[in-house]
Amino acid sequence: MLNTVIAAGTETAAAAGARVAAMGGNAVDAATAAVVASWVCEPGMTAVGSALIAMVRPAGERAMLVDGLTVMPGLGGHRGEPAGGSRITMPYGPGVETGVGPASVAVPGGPAALELLQQRWGILSWAEVLAPAIRLAGEGFPYPEVSATYLPVSGECIYDLTEGGRRIWRFPDGRPRQVGDVTVLPELAADLQQIAEEGASVLYTGSLGERIGEWLVEHGGALSQQDLAAYQPLVRPPRQANDQGWTVWTSDTIGGEALLEMVAGFSEIPPESEAEARLLVDVMRATLQRRDDRLRGASASTTQICAVDETGCACSVTTSTGYGSGVVVPGTGIMLNNMLGELELLPHGPHVLKPGERLPSNMTPMIAVRDESVVALGAAGADRIAPAIAQTWRGIVARRASVSASVDAPRFYVRDVNGAATVDFEPGFDPLGVTLPLHSFDERHMYFGGVQAAALCADGSLAGGGDPRRGGATAFYSS
């Protein structure tokens, strides 16, 4: 049995990872169990029909990236009408416009990529690591605060589109679920049981994929059985950089490029200096302007899981359904993504991509190693993902704060609208010397991202941080 720390978006998901560690699993097994549990017990944040990016670092080896990003459908000749889904405006923050419904669904890569990750680098069987999530879906889980906060905003305009979507956030009499309500999702439990027994292929080339593809095409979607059957997760080396003696690995997504640029810029700024806030803001603003010149990214319904065990094996997984399509195909319990409807990711529309091409993403899992120390971290939070990780990492490396204190520390974000920049910040961040317009939040807020982090420290102890902004939690298994 390996001592392991798991950080996840809810206590329920983190505990699922700890249960698998207690069964003899390593950090990859624990992270996989927590991811699948999050697909169950974080409604509105993520789901089985997701995109996924994972970083894995086997003990003593270099890290690898597992790419389960969504793919542009259309191999069956279907374009999806209307392009990108039906437009809705969701009352989230200043108002978010997105596309939902069957035509917003891209080919989900999450299950295929997660199975590849676990089968290649895990110890236990696929069925063993899925068992906790199946139990949660079939026997019930406490409805989390993050879902109870988000779904009243997105439920009516997105999740009420199909009866299966309604069941995710409403009781049979129509009442929205509240924090702590025991929630049972029997259709999802049956789907996960089938995936556990037959493998993720049942969603791509088997009966689940057949049911989903046929229904979507019949209802105006572009995603067909041909698209699902053609999907392949990818494995490749990640982006790599050095920071103050640490080897840092992260994804080669848009978010990953921004993260490494901010890490490098932040590294040159002395902590506690008089000009610290101004210089940090300058670095972030310049980085985000360059990122936005390439593409502006979204992905609001996202969650992050990290796990590290005593051997130094580490795993960081980010998974997202966009804002959710609202589509749960009858006869299944799987909420599907709306990646084709994310206007910020595809400002010129989805059909600029060819069928089979991967969609862009801001997801940015990260692993860093120095000598015997290992840190896995990542975040949910749309285009605030890379800034949230960079600030947390600065806390660990430059300020030498604990992992949990670095996750909790106040954050800022440089918001740019049509070339006009404003600095949003939480209580405790001192904007001394910043000359841009300022917008102070009254308390810590999920707007600034939900960072999860897990670490093996130089002395051999394990540490973790679950972000309170998004209901994050850590769980430890000690043999």
List the main descriptive attributes of the protein structure presented here.
2 domains; alpha+beta; 20 strands; Glutamine Phosphoribosylpyrophosphate, subunit 1, domain 1; about 475 residues
Q: Could you give the distance between the termini?
A: 6 Å
Radius of gyration: 21 Å
Helix amount: 25-40%
Structural class label = alpha+beta
Write down the overall geometry: globular
Q: Uncertain segments of ≥5 residues (pLDDT<50)? A: none
What can you tell me about this protein's structure?
The radius of gyration is 21 Å and the shape is globular. The longest helix is centred in the middle third of the chain and has 19 residues, at about 275-295. It has two domains: about 5-235 and about 300-350, no CATH class; about 240-300 and about 365-450, 4-Layer Sandwich (Glutamine Phosphoribosylpyrophosphate, subunit 1, domain 1), CATH 3.60.20. It is an alpha+beta fold and about 475 residues long. The protein has helices at about 10-20, 25-40, 110-120, 125-140, 145-155, 165-170, 185-200, 200-205, 205-220, 225-230, 255-265, 275-295, 385-395, 405-410; strands spanning about 5-10, 50-55, 65-70, 85-90, 95-100, 140, 180-185, 235, 240-245, 245-250, 300-310, 315-320, 365-370, 375-380, 410-415, 420-425, 440, 450-455, 460-465, 475.
